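Posted in: Structural Biology > Protein-Ligand Complexes

Title: Requesting predicted complex, glycyl-adenosine-5'-phosphate in pocket

I'd be grateful if someone could produce the 3D structure tokens for the following input. Sequence and ligand are given below.
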Amino acid sequence: MATNDNKFQAIIAHAKEYGFVFQSSEIYDGLSAVYDYGPWGSELKKNIRDYWWKSMTQLHENIVGVDAAIFMHPTTWKASGHVDNFSDPMIDNKDSKKRYRVDHLIEAHADTLPKEEGEALLDAMTQLEAAGDFAGLKKLIDDNKIKCIVSGTSNWTDIRQFNLMFKTEFGAVASTSEEDNIVYLRPETAQGIFVNFLNVQKTARMKIPFGIAQTGKAFRNEIVARQFIFRMREFEQMEMQFFVRPGTEGEWYQYWKEDRLKWHLSLGIPQDKFRYHDHVKLAHYAKEACDIEFEFPIGFKEVEGIHSRSDYDLSQHQLYSKKKLQYYDNDIDPATGKPFGNYVPYVIETSIGLDRMFLLILSNAYEEETLTKEDGSTDSRTVLRIPPKIAPVKLAVLPLVKKDGLPEIARNIMNDCRDEFYCFYEEKDAIGKRYRRMDAIGTPFCITVDHQTKEDGTVTIRYRDTMKQERLPADKVKELVKDRIR
Ligand code: GAP
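-- Reply #1 --
Done. Output follows.
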């Protein structure tokens, strides 16, 4: 197997060649850190989203969904703290004019040092960051003689904060104050849930503890956007805010931490590919937080966050909107023998990036396999071992030849199945070539219709992962596939 960096580059190339992910506006040389999903990519992305949505809403009686707008009242972002706090410390190299996120610059340098020295540098950085000590961080960069990779010099500006929210103008009417027209593209979907907390609780008659789930686009003007779809400027999140009685947040935080890892494992991804990373440095709203990290070819990296957000968001929206965002809890408090009464609920959040989950699936699925034939010679194939339940195409229907009535039989089988799951029909090229193309997009099952089908109504089914083939009656295909993608 190639080195991991090579594997990552191979995945990116494969994703483009087989219609999963394209650079956005590619004919104009692309737009940095923005990507489009092609035919199989959009199907896979939809399947991951649906799998998450079903696990959250359909399979939890006490979680319902919303679909809030991307544009929100600008005060939302003042209340949430994003206007003041959603920023990264940045530094520019005066010679190359290249801008760096301070933590990325120091982390990259730490990677080049012997282990203990690197760790000491990162510890020093974490302490200075936590204290908001920009002068100290600048001194750390100077003392370590950290250089710009472009100019090779250590000629740095001072460190400044750079807000990550995109702004745009709202409406066509000229305003006396420019600020009146400014709206932000949401940097997280969570706030659309918080501002709808009472609407949802009342209309769906939810009782605490309960959750609200949402999927949708989020936008961040990431300073250093690289590593393909790992860090994008436009991306999609799948978030769930779980509202609980104050005092119970610790146990619910543990519950969701474990539950979310189980969800990842339910896709058949090996446990040793995951680890938790408990946060020491917390986001401005968090009381306790951890990441679920996955071992991508570029190393262990965050794919999902679980955050105990206290009553921060609802209290802030209550303060800024001057509307009560409270819940009346008529359960009896055993300590007082009276109802718990009115309170602002606490929140446990689970937040996963859909694009990052997509990259996780591709990274785990991608394999370049060497095959030894019966005569001892070797061949190779690239296969995507995508879990069948989320594979873009579930079944390929392939007539062996383009004549003798085989295409008609194949199309009849496909027409019988396509209402239940995504099927793909192909009659061009040798059957081996067609199998390889299906391996490359992760199709778990192929059936071949041949002359024997005309005689006894059986077809050959070929399994992607083992490449084993067996015959079965054509009218059993639909049930077999349905059973395996459940
Ligand atoms: N509401 C909480 C929140 O947004 P976050 O840790 O900033 O928390 C949650 O983001 C998840 O969203 C991350 O774990 C990651 O999967 C995804 N994500 C964040 N920024 C991203 C980016 N620039 N590109 C792709 N995915 C991103």
